[in-house]
Design brief:
It is built from 25 helices and 13 strands. By secondary structure, it is α/β, with parallel strands linked by helices. The strands form four sheets. The protein has a six-stranded mixed sheet with strand order 9-10-8-11-12-13. This is RHG35 protein.
């Protein structure tokens, strides 16, 4: 209770915790001379102490207070260890303070740093009355405020750490030095201390390390299925093995070290391998983990499922080949109920079966067509009495179908009547025009193979020098636009195609040309109806009409087409060869006459400066479409126009390739396999 102290060269803030460790703490010495005491903090321990009676402590404090009161100095009662305080002790201490001239009481906890500053500032205010009165806050309220303050400081400090520390290999000494001047670091260290700041740093670094390891683990597990597919793709090799034996099998594979690395130290995530970013191979001890084993089981199941799906494909294919219900041209919707079962649906999607069915249909259709062609050859006498234009009447077609109707090869194409009729028409055309171009076996026709052999083996020296002159890709091609309304263009295009070979080639004066047709029946200003496209450059146009309306459509379309190319560099459509044709008129509901249609067509042809064809000029009666003679006449005119425009250069015929008098009699059916070299080369060499 003394108010004057003399303690020269003694350390201030001395406590038993510093004994023997004085050099580890901040050292401040007491001032020289006498030290005057201006006030007292009277401390009462309100915790439950060992071998200590609180009532005895209170009696001691009461006697101490009596001594302090004699000094007339300000006194503040401080309740310590409130973080472990007993409620009765706290209540008795407050009662004691009230009984002693209403002393001010501050509830504190030094360990939690709650209200420590408040105790001293309260005493200072009592000593210096000029200072503002300090508000005393109860312990639990102060603890709540401090907890909020610490939480806010902790959040800011953790944000600072996360911003500065990006690598799990950072050390506390380096990072703390970087953060020394940051207010977030200073505030948290002031409230919680350096050790807690370091602890949060270590937690953050540990979290970074675990995230890094997890990323590496996910990368390895993502690559592991690829390693299984590369090293053990064969189900028969691993289906009977245990997981341990599979691991041993992997080590025997030649490419094992391409996918895996065997570490001297394990586990891999506790070694420096986690920081070896250049080596992306999988640590082999990862195979001992549950996720790796699960991925192997998934790989095994995948191989088993693939085998089962392959078996289902084969079973489905065999089902198609053996089922009597699957006939050429039968739609999938009709065939599905006959060939599908629950097992098929369980293993594969219906789209896969549809694809297999589509390929099977293509095969059986081709086979059915070949067999039907053989049938037509066997009944050649049916086609001998037709007219020279090779267009059978409906009655004759009916007779042909009646005769062939009982044949199974005819019935096989029952679902493909249109294609069957087209084959009949092509066969009739072959009967009356038996050339290699119209041969049903084209391009394996014997004539074609012989000519190809001769041309490839015996070439004149002069022709070798001229070889590059005949390499124009457009030299044997005719691009023809067919313009007509209400189905006229499509109908004529189909008739022309019926006269072509299987690969759309047409014979003019004994020479074969590739014929490309573009029927147009709509607005020519639309891209879909344009005369020319990036892949189609027209050489001529057939303009069809059978009425005043269809003639007007032709005129408007030609004018629109010419207008669209005015001013353009490629305006050759202005000079495109045109042929205006009056074709079959199905019924005369408008009262127009043949004479008036011909007269109108002639006027338009004169206006458009094009060729005009009418039924009378062709020698056929009104009511019939354009015939093969007219088509050949038109195409020949187009070829002449192409030559005049230097779009086509002359080509040499195979007949001019050798000056040999070669006569060979061969009894070979077209399409039969034979080695042409063995047959022809000895004859040619002898010549």
């Amino acid at each position: 209770a003394a108010t004057k102290l003399a303690s020269a060269e003694k350390l201030m803030y001395f406590c038993t915790d510093q004994l023997g460790l004085e050099q580890d703490f901040e050292q401040k010495q007491m001032p020289d001379g006498k030290l005057l005491v201006d006030g007292f903090l009277l401390c009462i321990d309100v915790s439950r102490g060992m071998n200590r009676n609180f009532d005895d402590q209170l009696k001691f404090v009461s006697n101490l207070y009596n001594q302090l009161a004699k000094t007339k100095k300000p006194i503040v009662v401080v309740l310590t260890k409130c973080d472990e305080g007993v409620e009765r002790y706290i209540r008795d201490a407050h009662t004691f303070a009230l009984s002693k001239k209403n002393l001010q009481v501050v509830e504190t906890s030094a360990r939690s740093n709650v209200n420590i500053d408040l105790a001293f500032s309260t005493l200072v205010q009592l000593i210096d009355k000029s200072r503002g009165k300090t508000k005393i806050i109860p312990y639990f309220e102060a603890l709540k405020q401090q907890s909020q303050q610490i939480a806010a400081a902790k959040d800011k400090y953790e944000w600072l750490v996360s911003r500065i520390v990006k690598n799990h290999n950072e050390t506390w000494s380096n990072v703390s030095r970087k953060m020394q001047s940051s207010p977030e670091y200073q505030d948290y260290v002031y409230l919680e201390g350096t050790q807690k700041a370091k602890k949060l740093f270590l937690q953050h670094v540990h979290r970074l390390k675990q995230e890094h390891i997890e990323r590496r683990r996910k990368m390895y597990l993502a690559v592991l299925p690829q390693a299984f597919e590369a090293l053990i793709p064969d189900l028969d090799e691993i289906d009977h093995l245990s997981y341990v034996k599979v691991e041993k099998l992997l080590e025997t594979k030649p490419d094992f070290l391409k996918w895996f690395i065997v570490l001297e130290e394990t586990p891999w995530d506790a070694t420096s391998h986690i920081d070896n970013m250049e080596n992306e191979r999988i640590p082999f001890d990862l195979m001992e983990t549950q996720p790796a084993e699960q991925l192997y089981e998934a790989h095994l199941e995948k191989l088993r499922n693939e085998r089962k799906r392959a078996e289902m494909r084969r079973a489905f294919k065999e089902n198609l080949e053996t089922s009597p219900f699957i006939t050429p041209g039968k739609p999938w919707e009709e065939a599905r109920s006959f060939i599908m079962n629950e097992d098929f649906y369980m293993w594969l999607e219906e789209s896969i079966y549809m694809d297999i069915y589509s390929k099977h249909q293509k095969q059986i259709i081709e086979k059915a067509k070949e067999e039907f062609q053989e049938l037509l050859l066997e009944y050649s006498e049916l086609f001998y009495e037709l007219e020279l234009d090779a267009k059978p009447s409906k009655e004759k077609m009916g007779v042909i179908q009646d005769v062939l109707g009982e044949e199974q090869r005819f019935k096989a194409l029952q679902k493909l009547q249109a294609e069957r009729d087209a084959l009949i028409l092509k066969h009739i055309h072959f009967v009356y025009h038996p050339t290699k171009e119209t041969c049903p076996s084209c391009p394996v026709c014997v004539d074609s193979k012989i000519e190809h052999l001769i041309s490839s083996r015996f070439i004149r020296p002069s022709e070798r020098n001229q070889k590059n002159l005949h390499s124009d890709s457009n030299i044997d091609r005719i691009n023809l636009v067919i313009l007509g309304k209400d189905g006229l263009a499509r109908e004529l295009a189909n008739e022309i195609r019926a006269l072509c070979t299987n690969d759309d080639k047409y014979v003019i004066e004994g020479k074969m040309y590739e014929l490309s047709l573009r029927p147009i029946e709509g607005n020519v200003r639309l891209p879909v109806n344009s005369f020319q496209t990036p892949t189609f450059q027209p050489h001529g146009c057939l303009c069809l009409y059978n009425s005043k309306e269809s003639l007007s459509y032709v005129v408007e379309s030609i004018e629109k087409s010419r207008e669209s190319t005015v001013g353009r560099r490629d305006n050759h459509l202005v000079h495109l060869p045109l042929t205006l044709i009056l074709v079959n008129k199905r019924g005369d509901t408008s009262g127009e006459t043949l004479h008036s249609l011909i007269q109108q067509g002639q006027q338009i042809a004169s206006k458009l400066q094009c060729v005009f064809l009418d039924p009378a000029s062709a020698g056929i009666g009104y009511g019939r479409n354009i015939n093969e003679k007219q088509i050949s006449q038109v195409l020949k005119g187009l070829l002449d126009s192409k030559r005049n425009l230097n779009l086509v250069s002359s080509t040499s015929s195979i007949k001019d390739l050798a000056d040999v008098d070669l006569r060979i009699v061969m009894c070979l059916m077209c399409g039969d396999p034979f080695n042409a070299d063995d047959i022809l080369l000895p004859i040619l060499q002898s010549q």
